[in-house]
Amino acid sequence: MSISLTKALEIVDAALAKGREMAFEPLTVAVLDAGGHLVALKREDRSGILRPDVAIGKAWGALGMGFGSRELGERAVKVPHFMNALMAASGGRFVPVAGGVLILSGGDVIGAVGISGDTSDNDEICCLAGIAAAGYVGQTGFRPPQ
Amino acid sequence: MSISLTKALEIVDAALAKGREMAFEPLTVAVLDAGGHLVALKREDRSGILRPDVAIGKAWGALGMGFGSRELGERAVKVPHFMNALMAASGGRFVPVAGGVLILSGGDVIGAVGISGDTSDNDEICCLAGIAAAGYVGQTGFRPPQ
Amino acid sequence: MSISLTKALEIVDAALAKGREMAFEPLTVAVLDAGGHLVALKREDRSGILRPDVAIGKAWGALGMGFGSRELGERAVKVPHFMNALMAASGGRFVPVAGGVLILSGGDVIGAVGISGDTSDNDEICCLAGIAAAGYVGQTGFRPPQ
Amino acid sequence: MSISLTKALEIVDAALAKGREMAFEPLTVAVLDAGGHLVALKREDRSGILRPDVAIGKAWGALGMGFGSRELGERAVKVPHFMNALMAASGGRFVPVAGGVLILSGGDVIGAVGISGDTSDNDEICCLAGIAAAGYVGQTGFRPPQ
């Protein structure tokens, strides 16, 4: 199963609402299906022109390796050459910093959300808010939350 | 001036509503700003995994040359080598068939919408419906409509 | 739902058995999941070094547009510039000739199989034999078989 | 001489059996011939979508330089700019971490196996188990084992 457009939009809209509530910088929010393909994207006014690729890359990287991009960011500090290789292998669709979160339904990965615009920690807060609003579980690290 | 997220979403939603009204195949709709960068994208369930790139490529091609992708498609029949060169020059973000329409406001190009999913003629119908619903003028060819 | 490794291997092995039964040229068989990512691939001895990319490209193209690559091949004759654009947009993962067949389960696309090695018609015969052996339905054209 | 499909499958299946025996994470296993082209690949269910490219990249990198990817990983720590250049030069098919092992037969390199899914050390364990099961010698570093 992969995420539907209806549910993807619930995630995007709740993530953007969280960003406005917290007065974060303008955000770009992307939801990808389990295969790494765009289902929905919204870029707020004044969000930079690279933000869509960054948001997509965070989500894609999470799907690519099977764990959230926060974990990828921690590994990038320890083994930068490996993360560089993954950037190259993925054709640039791999952004290893927090803000790319797997979407779990019943233990299965059904997609991922990526956000770019504020700090990566704040981006992640909005990812999780969006996923929770849609009734799914978000995974930011190596293991699903218990 | 470039298109806002609010107006981009009006275009996307009206385009999708037109597609459902006409019982077209599942559609992917992308709105790009005047710089060719994504503002909003929605992919309906069962729309193929290359559709986002095709929708973006139609809109990007229109912005790239400054006229609607219907015109690009007609030129592709006459000068295919030129269009092939543009595909290569753009890194693959150039899809010269109908369904990529410039968004005009007061005579200025403020963005473009691209749609992929049904025949290119039908895709274009939805582009125009979306642009009209948002109160803008759509340009499918070489010259703005009079 | 996407195809499992177990079922993908049933398809690959039955396709290769068909090829040997028919005394076809050495084949390369690839099965992709619904997102266009490799699940299983086998290349027979003396099958050329580009064959993996061709087999993958046939299957990927089918998933990309949502119909079998036989249909894509027919369209490539009518609108070559469009197919060229899809090759570029997909980064070369788009091979519009017969031999890329969607795998349907209960009406849903759960993956695709691509074969390269003999004529494209013969490649397709093996795709269909493999899909049938695994208990699924193969779609070679624009519409699912009735 | 290059590895046959029959022997490549022996390696893949023994590597996957080792992974199940050790209760490793879901693995993707790729075997390339001496020319760096895929012979066989299997991706276990729940193995991430970038894993095929990572597994192929480890094996390709080993073939590319003529020694196992463990050695490449050690060099990447000392001369990261050189490894970055190799990633770029290879078009992204170069992943310098353990888990890409050359396959030697009578002292000749006849292919390479790459695995991605668990830690790189564990991936390498499965590479070596697969190669040994097929009756070949695996080379993880700069020199063939004595």
Automatic annotation (TrEMBL), chains A, B, C, D:
Classification via Pfam families: HbpS-like
SUPFAM superfamilies: GlcG-like
Coiled-coil annotated spans: none
InterPro entries according to UniProt: GlcG_carb_metab_protein (IPR052517), PduO/GlcC-like (IPR005624), PduO/GlcC-like_sf (IPR038084)
Protein name, entry field: Uncharacterized protein GlcG (DUF336 family)
Organism name: Aquabacter spiritensis
